[in-house]
Amino acid sequence: MSLPKKLTEMQIKFAQELVTNEGRKTATECCLDAGYAKDRAAITASELQSPKRYPLVVQYIGKIRAEYQKKYEVTYERHISELAKLREDSRKKGAWSAAINAEVARGKAAGLYVEQKIIRTGKLDDLSEDELDKRIAETLDEYSPILEGVTAEEIKSNVKEKQKEIRLDNKKDTVKPRVMVKIN
Predict the structure, then answer these.
(1) Distance, C-alpha 152 to centroid of its chain
(2) What HEC string does 155-170 produce?
(3) Helix count (H) and strand count (E) of the chain?
(4) Stretch (H or E) spanning 69
(5) Reduced to 3 states, what is the DSSP secondary structure of residue 11?
(6) pLDDT digits 0-9 by tens, 111-151
(7) Please, what is the end-to-end C-alpha distance for the chain in angstroms?
(8) Exposed e or buried b for every residue in 121-154, given b needs 16+ CB within 10 A?
(9) What is the pLDDT at residue 14?
(10) What burial class does residue 102 get, using C-beta atoms within 10 Å of its C-beta: 0-12 exposed, 13-18 middle, 19+ buried?
(11) Mean pLDDT along residues 17-30
């Protein structure tokens, strides 16, 4: 059996259907849409994707995939401009939430936002008074830009008061009443 020198219209149609509908249609469905017989569609779809049986079809499928890959390649510039387009479309429709989300996504892609999670362990009531003062000072220094109208002394006294309450509550829970038993 000699190999064909060029693709048939049905083979071209199958390859295009397969690539353009990747993930949405099976190869058998693409084969049917290309015009192949229903009773052999699954077999034909498999054969058309075999490099031994139909190397030209497989080559053509690879060529179309490469074109699509290049056409829809995600680059920084395309990503940012697509998000800008989505933002503008959302603004025009009055979908403010979608517009804001698109703008935030653009900012993240551009590196304007840094997500940071801090996980701290330990309990404040386990700290000594000196350690607590040190922790409060560090926290105040770190968060001073967002603390408006609250003095450091107010915060310190609130934290210390809370710590005393916690310690008193813990002592109440651990103290067990004594029972006296008289032995004759």
Answers:
(1) 39
(2) HHHHHHHHHHHHHHHH
(3) 8, 0
(4) helix 55-71
(5) helix
(6) 777 777 766 666 766 777 888 888 878 877 776 656 666 67
(7) 113
(8) eeeeeeeeeeebeeebeeeeeeeeeeeeeeeeee
(9) 95
(10) buried
(11) 92
